[in-house]
Design a protein that fits this description.
Length: 140
């Protein structure tokens, strides 16, 4: 999936990959056809064209035969947890590290560009100490 999607549709790549990690970490029996149905076939793309989505789906459907792996198996969480970790460079000296799959990741981290052309990430925070560390009080 990385080679097929990461460069042409980075947002879609991140969302699909995160959904697959969520599936792995929440199921006792991995089912390849179910994961394709849930996370690729029923996915509404952001950057990816319908043609690219169909091409990706077809390539993924061929994987079990081409790579000779079972379509159903118990997932190995220790292997998946290592792959879940991803570090993103945000600004000189600042990185964001994602350490596990996140429910509704697109609602937690959002990118936008301000009217002045500067680009920002808006991150929902559930940690009070982190929030207070970066909170600016309005000037009177």
């Amino acid at each position: 999936m990385n080679r097929n999607l990461k460069k042409v549709a980075p947002y879609d790549h991140m969302v699909i990959q995160n959904a697959i990690y969520l599936y792995f970490s929440s199921t006792e029996q991995f089912d390849f056809s179910e994961i394709l149905e849930r996370n690729v076939k029923n996915y509404t793309p952001n950057d990816m064209t319908a043609e690219k989505k169909e091409e990706l789906l077809q390539k993924l459907q061929k994987l079990p035969e081409e790579q000779h792996f079972d379509q159903q198996f118990p997932p190995s969480l220790s292997v998946i947890k290592r792959k879940m970790k991803k570090t993103y460079d945000v600004y000189s000296g600042i990185q964001i590290k994602v350490t596990s799959a996140v429910e509704n990741l697109g609602d937690v981290i959002e990118a936008y560009q301000a009217d002045d052309g500067k680009r920002y990430l808006k991150i929902r925070i559930d940690n009070d100490v982190t929030f207070r560390t970066f909170e600016r009080k309005a000037e009177s």
